[in-house]
Amino acid sequence: MAVLANSAPHAQPHSHPTEQDHEAHLREEHLMLDPRPRGEMNAMVMESMQTTSWKFWVVTAILVVVVAVCLVYYWGLMISVGLGIAGVNRPIYWGIFLVNTVFWIGISHAGTFVSALLRVFKAEFRRPFTRAAELMTTFGLVQAGLSIFMHMGRVWLAYWLFPYPNERGLWPNFHSPLSWDFLAINTYLLSSTMYLFLPLIPDLAMARDRSTGWRKVLYRVLALGFRGTEGEWTHLRFAMNLFAFAILPVMFSVHTIVSWDFAAAMRPGWSSTIFGPYFVIGALQSGLSAVAMVLIVVRGTMKNMKYFIRPEHLDALGKLMLIISMAWAYFFFNDYMVQWYNGDKWTDILLRFHEEGPLGWMWYAMLFFNIVVPWLVLWNKNFRRNPTILFIVGFLVNVAMWFERYIIIPTSLSINRFPFTYQFYKPNVEIPLSIGTVALFVLLYMLASRIIPLVPVWEVQEGQMAHSLRKYGKETVVTVRDLD
Amino acid sequence: MSDKTMLLALFPDLDPAAHAVERLREMGVTDDHVNIISGIPVTDAMLGRPKQPSNVPSLALAGAFGGACLGAFLAFGVPNLYPLDVGGQPLFPGPPSIVVMFEMTMLGMLISTFLGVFLDSRFPSYTPKEYVAEISDGKIAILIECQPEEEADIETAMTKLGAESVKHAEAQTL
């Protein structure tokens, strides 16, 4: 067996032409086999952050206007007038605000999943896009938090959630799932932000060494004086490994606890022991699709990103999306089957309402976009590697997952055991506010892409050092060394 | 201590740096007078360096313990101080307390891990330090603390082993 060095861009001189073609193909296919000097990769990432076309600013300006109108103005209006201008009313007290909360927490799951789980299992394809995914977690949680505050109505009383002695006898009940939500979401927000920041430090130091003006000042402060000494790397590596292992159960706990907001209530359609894993898999379903969408946009719009994000990465994400879609279908059917089988009158009425009620189209669209579309498309390698097709699948899956949360929350609340209270939910101010959260997410991400190196260059270089081509008989194959 | 000087030898790659570390040891420069600075996490074993100690694991454990205590306070102490009767349900139920304690334990552990990196690495530190920007371009620097009379020998040895430059390390503002 012979190892072909990963620094050589071409095959050995004595190789057969077809072998050379094969090796060239492997290097073109895999980022880890196509190394460039570190200085060049640094320059590429810096250029991608600093090169901004007029189109970027036009889109930014539009998003700022949308955020100002849909989020700031309408939220201000709702605060001044009251929750009465929202569509929530008896019996539907939980409307789109909570749909959005669950949706955004779901989006935030994929960042941690992609980064932490793939790091734990040493999946090498993760290296160039972990940060782009982690950023989604932080910004997704910001939207989830905003949605909760919107739902709260009187946001200025939010501090009542904190346990502190007071004369009114108001006190949070820590045995309520709503208090667990507060603890879990805050734990997840803090942990995922720290997990985003730790591996970012070496890249901030890299950016510091290559910047001038305000960027230099910013990166200097954020890089904390990092040089890359043995001690600094040791502490950083240990912390990143610990975070990768520890943040996974936190991630699972967050969406499980969110599911308990519903499952702990004795309501038809909600009281289900499988809601925890069903919600977690749903979160991964929407989150992974969102990661794919973001990567495709980043790859298509930012300079030099085609080198770092390649069809192999879209292919890998497409496979993950397909597997998660299958898992979602399994959990959905498991939940549906038991409810359908138990013969409870009110559950039967609810299930019929889901399927045959005025929003029955939403129920079928949910199944079609979540199951049929991914299964029909993502089995095909060429489709998975096609950015346009993968983007469309990702978008449809996210629409379907938003529908799923809508069906679980306001649609299920429309009918209950008191037929005289049946009411159809008509969202009002919730619609512009929802648009506002989407716009704010995109805006924050776009602005962050100008400041934060989206590709962890040191991780890419580390991966490239670990990969090589090896001859087994006449076959050239990719091998990976464990550098830990 | 004050008469010692600090040299910075810059290597283009890992292999020559590893050989240089070995050579320095042969020349009598002890491990605690050598420090490696790199743009990627080079392991101790790759360079033949002694294992670096870290307090991060201990701090993580301590944080987990502190978080568990806070969780126990929220789950058991708070209902004890301010009892809330919710439909006759128990004041100190088991399963819900596990949820609160789990979240607080994990939060305590992760925050202390994060702060542990700051503490062990002495972050943030904006005072001038020995550094060259080429390190983040993939070069590997060896900082060598030595006596002035050893300088010439070390410089020759490092250059022979492939150092691109060997010079007096200058503290610079990062």
Description:
The complex is a heterodimer of chains A (484) and B (174). Chain A has a single domain, classed as Formate dehydrogenase/DMSO reductase domain (Formate dehydrogenase/DMSO reductase fold). With 484 residues, chain A is mostly helical. In chain A, a hairpin with a 2-residue loop joins strand 2 and strand 3 (475-480). Helix content of chain A is 69%, strand content 3%. Chain A has a 3-stranded antiparallel beta sheet with strand order 1-2-3. Chain A has helices at 17-29, 38-50, 54-81, 96-120, 130-152, 177-197, 200-209, 213-223, 230-263, 275-301, 305-308, 311-341, 345-356, 360-377, 381-384, 387-414, 430-451, 457-466, and strands at 2-4, 467-472, 475-480. Chain B folds into 2 domains: 5-53 and 133-172, Alpha-Beta Plaits; 56-120, no CATH class. Helices cover 47% and strands 16% of the residues of chain B. In chain B, helix 3 runs antiparallel to helix 4. The longest helix of chain B is centred in the middle third of the chain and has 28 residues, at 94-121. The two termini of chain B are 25 Å apart. At the A-B interface, helix 2, helix 6, helix 7, helix 8 and helix 9 of A face strand 2, helix 3 and helix 4 of B.
